[in-house]
Amino acid sequence: MKKKSLIIATLVSAISIAWAAETIWIHQNNKITLGLPISLADNITLSDDGASVNFNQIDGTTHTTAYTEIEKVTLGNAQEVITINYNGTDAEIVNPYAFQGVTITKTGGDVVVNSTSTSELTYQLTGTASSGSFKIYSDTKFVLNLNSVNITNNDGAAINIQTGKKCTVNLTGSSALCDAASYTTVTGEDQKGCFFSEGQIIFTGSGSLDVTGNYKHGICSDDYIDIQSGTVNIVKAANDGIRVNDYFLMTNGTLNTANTTGDGIDGDTGYIQIDNGTINVNIATADTKGIKCDSIITMNGGNVTLTVPAAQGKGFKTKQTMTMNGGKITANMTGAVAVVSYDPSYCTAIKTDIDFVMTGGDIIVTHSGEAGKGISADGNITFKGGNVKITTTGNGNTYTASTGTDTYCSTCISTDGNLYLDGGNLTLSASGTGGKCIKADLQLIAKPASDNDLTVIAETKGTQVGSSSSGGPGGGGRPGRPGSSSSTSDTSTSPKVIKSTGNMTISGGNFTIKSASEGGEGLESKATMTISGGNFYFNTYDDCINAASALVISGGNIRAVATGNDAIDSNGSMTISGGVTLASGTHDPEEGLDVDQASKLSITGGTLINQKGNMLNLTTTQCKVPTVKYSSSISAGTLVTITDASGNHIVSFKAPQAMSQGCYITHPSLKSGNSYKLYTGGSVSGGKAFNEVTNEGTYTAGTLVKTFSISSNLTTL
To answer: Which of residues 545, 579, 613 is at a domain's end?
Structure first.
């Protein structure tokens, strides 16, 4: 018998060489097929007792297999891919590298690979495992083809990569992984998710992968994850959808993550970079984050959609700085605020513990949750380009703070540091009670290279929230002016459009600013405000412009119309030396220009239309350049014009609202010793128009009110 078997084996070897076969295939009855390349084979022998077969290689090594384990031996072509086909609770394995450092064992459907090969091998998984897994130890990086494979493991991870080497996952067809709710662990080894790897994971291909993480994370790498193509769906995760230690990179492809108890994507101490592709994240568990890390977040392209109904939830969250250079973020936020240890924790679309910088791309945020935030930074916020549209509709409210009662409210953009507006297009709307469009706790500085580089359209529609001892919404009276000290227990919050606690400096840009209710001021600085350029369209209920310490206007075009308060108000000093300003305050006792101390107002130049409600009566002390006071009432829509003595047009304005006490007009063309005419009605064409104000151009005369001469810096008509 031995001799016969040996002869057969020898003949097999000879025949294989004669037929130019590439591989001897050893088919074992446990459904594992081993491939021995002919080029490596020496001969095949039986053991002396005939119980085992020796496959001898030319390098002197021998692989011994029990004779009873061999189903058959065939000859065939070489195969480069290691294939594992799952079938219920079993698996069929073809291992062409069995004699080249790759050992594959299995227990039912649980497949374990040990590879000492120095080559980058490819493993292909197919079929369906109702109880199975794939685990690998490898000394070298490898490729894992998931070809319409479905693996459910009942006692651990579905895929468990116990190597720090790179795994390139190629997705073909539709695959799915599902792990157990509890794991049988191995001492010294991690299993942190349904798809776990000690090393890097790179997703490629055109297929899809559904991952259900019942134990912890959906996909976890103790190194990094890079999605280059394909579609990855985190169907469910008991903790994070994606978890990495080093970094997460989205190069292309699609990632969908939902039903996570933890975060959607957690970069841990590493960074997150999104260059392209599509990411959709839905988080519903309180105090979780859509995309977060402790390092920097950079978005250069791609599309990210965030759905956050979670209270305290964050769309993007980093402990450092987030930079957006391109791509698009769409955030649908409905989560509420939660008061934790007397401190409110907000549901925020983008939250950074240091800075937020935007140079390009698009951000669209809709937030209906109570006191919701659009973009919030503990450091500085800088806009250099791109498009931002943030709409908040959630109301503000009062809460119990450690020092008493305080208020919180929705804010489109909020920073604890400075806000820099260097460029971009911002469209902001806050309609909830106490809502704010922009709030900077330090300075706000707008210095675009040109006016067209920056556009800000901002509007508040909500009313005040809270109460004030001086008589706010809860006290039945009008609250004290900003900066006043009449209130000692003020917990009210007003719907400011753009507010800075520190200085506000604007040298350019296009601003459209609106508010609808009491307290809805347009621009407010709790320190000094300086405007040297830019175009401003105000239509506010409360003050269009309010400065606590000082207001300096040296340039720009300002149309300030307040329907319920002063147009321009300074609680300190006010200096106007240039630009074009139309200031229209409302009825008595409000004013076009309001300065708490008349001696601190100085008009030294520019074009100023100061339409009176009950206006501060200017004197030559304030008017340091020729100014005309027209004392008659003006109906809304009336055109008021000054020409020179020959009828050449100088300046016109159309009254935006009715004023019983007329207006003041200051213009650089008004010179002492010259004669002029003031008209109402008529029409003007050409010239330089800014809303209701037109300089130069041609005037078609209406009704001549008066011909007058200027002999001092204040001429009363």
So the answer is: 579
